[in-house]
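Recap from last week: sequence in, structure out.
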Amino acid sequence: MTNSPSTTQPHGPADERATRKEWTALGVLMLPLMLVSMDVSVLYFAIPQITADLDPSGTQQLWMFDIYAFVLAGLLMTMGSIGDRIGRRKLLLFGATAFGAASVLAAYAQSAEMLIAARALLGIGGATLMPSTMALVRNMFKNAGERAKAIGIWQAVMVSGIALGSVMSGVLVEHFWWGSVFLVNLPAMAMLLILAPVLIPEFKDPAPGRFDWLGVPLSMAAVLPVVYGLKEFAAEGFEIAYVVWVAVGLVFAALFVQRQRTSASPMISPDLFRGRTGFGSAVTLNLISSVAMMGSAFFTTQYLQSVLGKSAMEAALWALLPSVLIGGAAPVATLLVQRGVNRATIVGTGFVTSATGFALLLLVDTDSLWTVLLAAGVLACGAVIIGAVLTDLALGAAPAEKAGSASSLLETGNEFGGAMGMALLGSIGNAVYHAQVPSSAPAEARETLGGAVAVAQSLPGKAGDALLVAAREAFTNGMHVAAMVGVSVLLVAAATAVVTLRKVRVRVEEPAAGTVEHDLGHVHA
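Predicted structure tokens:
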């Protein structure tokens, strides 16, 4: 393996243009990002074969799905901080090695416990790769316009990877055994290990201070209980145990924040949130966008399968159509930034666009395939615009030497937002569903739409049809109420973005004068 010279480059000229080498390196970085995001959904079609081979219990099957996301969310901040200290390229290569090894372990797992452990290791690898790729984009592209374009590409790849994962797993398990959904990671990781040392220089904090060892368990104790409680609340409904989990996480979150404020060498520097840089606003608004994105997905995925009666594979293929719209969203956002449009206006417009997507869901009845797909596409376009501009703003606001920590905090916010979206909007939809399904229906049918579909199939003739019609209408009405809440939240977020971001000042790194600030609305690429 050829090693390029290791350099520490916390600052660089604001007008330094990227060469073909940097753009090629960006393409290499997109490979692990795509695979990490795909692994969130890659088990969807493989699970029947895995169940037949490994015979997992119901609890073990749930952990096969969830352990990856839990470990990923819990370690993001830790890995971002480590990358700032040891070097982001070094952490990237470590993550690629771990991800590749864990993929082999998962593919050839001989028991449910072995597969769960392998998925946990995949989460560790993913937690190193995601903040490393984002931070390296921040470091390689010093020109503001080019960085905005690169981050837009990063955002589009991440969003499309989640949708592509389920489709890819369906195609692979149709022609190969279930382990192939993990082995597909290997060529990309091998390419990354070969090309990254050649194309990507090393970047790290030249004076990181001592590592915050106490911050590691505190950050995990803050993130994991909250994510777990919210996910279970969305899946199982209200239970006091899930509220306790969230409360415990919030207590540790307060302790973590206090630790970061008082530590001489914090994992997440409080300086990121000081002044008028907009970092805190960007993290918060990006989290709200994730609430909307995942909250809508909770309904649209069920609608395609249980209301329209599509198979899982058919639903996954139909769900790819909105990606056509998503592909154009990030370039539009980048072009607007380059034309000097105030970023507060762009982000506000992104939230209004997402709100329009939710509003389109209000037009959906029990046979509205194209309306649902259009709504999903419009909502996702808004989310990609928001994510691209806010990520660029947040990374531009952070000193280059803290890019890893800043990236990890953004990603952790995305995880929180996704869990909150499913819990909040999902619980609203479920409450309407429970209220409208006939009380005479079996308990399983009153719990979930999927349960109603299963019960209806076992009932004779008209009785099954009547239950199915009532359940589908109840679910659609629940989606309408959740969509109205989504519209309200997003419109408030749009107004908040316009107010809070308009006077934000952006760091611009210049070779002679150091770091200076310009009004957000007047920064031109």
